[in-house]
Known about the structure:
The chain is α+β, with helices and mostly antiparallel strands and 255 residues long. 30% of the residues lie in helices and 29% in strands.
Amino acid sequence: MKKSQLQLADALGQQSTDKRIDILRRIGQVGSISEAARGAGVSYKAAWQAIDTLSNLAGVALLEKLVGGAGGGGARLTQAGHRVLDAADQMSQARRDVLTKIETDAQAGVPMFNLSALSLRTSMRNQLPCTVKAVKSRAGAIRVELFLPDQTVVCARITRESAELLGLKPGLAVLALCKATAVSVGTSCEPADGRNLLTGQASRASRSKTGGEVALSLPSELQLVGFTAPGELLKVGHTAMAWFDESAVVVALTH
């Protein structure tokens, strides 16, 4: 069997300030997942989710369990786990150096949030800069209310563990991501529980009797891409509505 290779670039695809890295570091320090979870301010389940995700991205195990002993067992980092932390430290320092240089450049003229967001690569075409308005528990999950730049609200429904690992709180700058295929566009739509409903003007529209792609220019000047139903023909400049489920929205950190 071919030995798995450590995939550092994948494991550190998010910024090294990611809480998952913090949890891994704490486990290395205290030798206990439960203690690391308490120190990081997340649940034991969320801590395990963090380690599982990091291990999947790295392609190798980052922890090994210790059985028995006076403390009843624990966990310690593998060599790969130590390498991930070392790489995270180096990337954090390099990032600080770059941002310091940009911040002192009077000619930059680009908000730092947007610069960070440019590093995100995903197949999701809708990537909307937002600010967290509120984080609420609802039906066993977490409902995150997000402000678009014009204060329009978009909501996302995520797991409690994901909210913990992202460290979501009011005022935090994030991206709301949504696949274009999850967005329906038409001339009208009734409000419904668990549904986001936005209004804009068609800036691009493919004319197709079987349904086509439409780009809406929102009041915030952001662009939202979705698809019309068969027979729904929209023209550029027409007012239209876009709707998509809260569960279709992914919340992403960019810094």
